[in-house]
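Appendix B, record 7
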Amino acid sequence: MALHTEWLSAEELRETGPDPTIRPELLRSGTRLGRYELVMPVAFGGMARVWAARLVGANGFRRLVAVKTILPHLARDEEITKLFRDEAVLAARVHHPNVCAALELGVAGEVTFLALEWIDGEPLMKLLRPGDSYEPFELPVALRIVRDACLGIHAAHEAVDDEGHPIGTIHRDLTPHNVMVNLDGQAKVVDFGVARSSLQSHEATAAGQLRGKLAYMPPEQIAGEPIDRRVDVFALGCMLYECVVGARAFQGPSDPAVMQAIMRGEYTKPSHAKAGLPVALDAVLAKALASDPGQRFRSAGAFADALDSLARAHGDASARDVGDAISVRGGGAIILRRARIAEAAARLDGRPEVGDSHIPLPPLSAAGVPSSSGVVESGGAPSQEDLTQAGFPCHDDPMLSDAAPTSKDFARGEIPSFVSSGDLGRFPQSGAHVLPKTSGLVFVQVILLTILVAAAVVAFRFVNS
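Structure tokens (predicted):
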């Protein structure tokens, strides 16, 4: 039986913001959850939805954040709620520029929410596959991205409790879906939804149940043996392989075949899989992907050191280099998301909508998009499908992975699509801004003035001839 959803008007939502009767099924743009005002949904999955939201402060202060909420039909599930809270508690213990920061775990009415740092970027997987096939990164860029992820995970591994004791964090679900890269060229690890630590309150993994994605699991995790931080090192190795080769390290026609390849350590060396890759990369990945955890890098930090050495020998990319690469692959989607959020925020504030304002909008068919450094690169225009889906990065964790929305979900309004084909039809075909309605009149005035000046010049020459 479908869940009946009763939508409230924006004014009703503003009035009931702090009311204890706020219910998960009534969340929509304009809802206030404590200090946060929901602007629009930007990501979704089988268990949670992520919203672009504004932290509202005194004297007109506004700050864009991400707010994660459990989907309505799961919001009263005690185990899901514990999992959600554990993610927040763990994320709050990790302070590192390469980890998405947790700002607050809050409760408003019947809604439990997690406020997170806003990342103006795209998931690594979407950048690796901007279309139907893989497009591997240049080696220096790939090394920089994965090194950042290594540093972020190492910080999580080293996290301690209030007494300074290690809490034994293990992410357990590191994939290119769970690493975001922004236009500043910085990679950040996200989604600690299935991470394990001494702080967790939800039930331990049941016997025979695997947490994470099969293609990135080391043999000991698949076999159900005791695990430690080196399972994350293995996953980071799989991620690096994917970034430089453009294919998964361990492959097979079925899950059992992939499992066998992992258990046997069977994969094609990078230098054999793709021409031009150095043999030194083979050795680094062989250590990261070793079947025996005792043969792997002892920590993600040690793996990062090895990547630094490799970069010094074969090309070191700066954050600006990474940002430029990201702008080519995902800049269009990122800029479009910015524009849609700005438009939604303007509507909430009662400001003029697009067409009556100067809200910047990206061109649909531009030859390039601006990067973090301001350089315009060619070849980065997103496809119509990419633009239609812009702003919905699905982070592949238990909160955001179990089921993709269907057309019926969109039709009944449970998962609102904020970038539809109709929306795209309103965007300009060239240029970076929507001109105000008065611009046409100004243009005509300029033309008339030009004609008058030209006529005066001709008359003056005729009189003096």
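Remarks on this record: Residues 10-117 form a domain with the Phosphorylase Kinase; domain 1 fold (CATH 3.30.200.20). Residues 319-349 form the longest helix (31 residues).
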